[in-house]
Amino acid sequence: MEKNEILRIYGTDYKEMTKTLLNEARLFERIKKGARIGIKPNLMAPVPADFGATTHPEVVAGIIEHLQEHGFNDIRIIEGSWVGDKTEMSFEYCGYNNLKDTYGITLVDTQKESAYETGNGDIKVNVCKCMQDVDFLINVPVIKGHCQTNITCALKNMKGLIPNSEKRRFHSMGLHEPIAILNSCLKQDFIVVDHICGDLDSEGGGNPYHTDCVMAAVDPVLLDAYVCKLLGYEVSDVPYIGLSEKAGVGCADLSTLKMHTIGGDGVEKDEVLPVSHRIIKLKDFAKDVDTCSACYESLMEALERLQDEGLLEKFNSKIMIGQGNRGQIGEYGIGNCTSKFKHYIKGCPPESDDIYEGIKGWIEEQ
Ligand code: SF4
């Protein structure tokens, strides 16, 4: 498989599809004998994969079986859920404890890891120490929309390999530049993409859109550029892609891309996904200054409910959210970072239900 290729396969037996895909890509030939292999899924929260937010365990099972059948047995799954949720709950609810028992592999929770400093140039990043024991990293992201960065796939999924304190710092730096730097100093060697039923608008899922596809790629920049096209964005709408390209992580030029569908008729058809950008429209109601993902997702979920009930248009103030509001005063705020505001919803991150009830109360008072 070449660097400018994306292989894809469609079907509903996700484990067997993945194994067919990896045999076609000849993944086993890329890995040195005796290598310590890390698999990085997306388990941002304890929600099942059919919710549209997390990596299907069947895909990871297919990867593990491919590796074990080719004599690779030093395998660990490495992940850290987003700020506000516990990885150990995600491992349990998303079916990864079962994978551990079935295949005798190790689960590594990066929320419990200490970190080492790395980086190129002026900006340094703190990466979890477990990554020093990985020789070959297989990234297994889910294709999803994202309320702050528009899309999330291979490049952003690497954020699960840094501690929570560093995730907060990334948000305070605007996400794009640190994501590019993280990718420039932490290489993903192979990517298996769960494109089975990701939510096209939200990182947290809730509205899965079924495509029943698993893909394989080598270049995370080219893959993410392709995901922009799939979700109706320009590559320039997701600055970390261009920044990663500049940092030498890969190539964002889609004219170089070669698609190959396994079991296809040889004619590569463009996939057509419904483009709603539903969450983007809700962003107008809030002002975000360096907000953590879980906090922003909770707000968007609450705003969506209020909009569905026809209440949101009745609220005529801006809602402030994010770490940039710490110590500031204001009117309406979300999360403990806005604790000095006249009205604010407690929590770090606050629950979506609390935000919904809180804003509903503000609307009634106005
Ligand atoms: S309250 Fe502030 S620190 Fe806590 S999750 Fe929200 S933005 Fe992040």
Fold blueprint:
Elements: E1 5-10, H1 14-25, E2 37-41, H2 57-69, E3 75-79, H3 87-93, H4 96-103, E4 106-109, E5 115-118, E6 125-128, E7 136-140, E8 144-146, E9 150-152, H5 154-157, H6 164-172, H7 176-185, E10 190-195, E11 213-217, H8 220-230, H9 239-246, E12 258-261, H10 278-282, E13 286-288, H11 293-308, E14 319-321, E15 332-334, E16 343-345, H12 352-365
Parallel strand pairs: 1-12, 2-3, 2-7, 3-4, 7-10, 13-14, 14-15, 15-16
Antiparallel strand pairs: 1-11, 5-6, 8-9, 10-11
Bound molecules: iron/sulfur cluster.
Iron/sulfur cluster is lined by residues 83, 168, 291-292, 294-295, 322-323, 335-337, 348-349.
Question: How would you explain this protein's 3D organization?
Answer:
The chain is of the alpha/beta class and 366 residues long. The protein has 2 domains: 5-261, Rossmann fold (3-Layer(aba) Sandwich); 278-365, no CATH class. The protein has helices at residues 14-25, 57-69, 87-93, 96-103, 154-157, 164-172, 176-185, 220-230, 239-246, 278-282, 293-308, 352-365, and strands spanning 5-10, 37-41, 75-79, 106-109, 115-118, 125-128, 136-140, 144-146, 150-152, 190-195, 213-217, 258-261, 286-288, 319-321, 332-334, 343-345. An 8-stranded mixed beta sheet has the order 4-3-2-7-10-11-1-12, with helices on one face. Helix 1 (14-25) crosses helix 2 and helix 7 (176-185) packs parallel to helix 9. The longest helix is centred in the C-terminal third of the chain and has 16 residues, at 293-308. The protein is globular. The chain starts with a strand and ends with a helix. Bound molecules: iron/sulfur cluster.
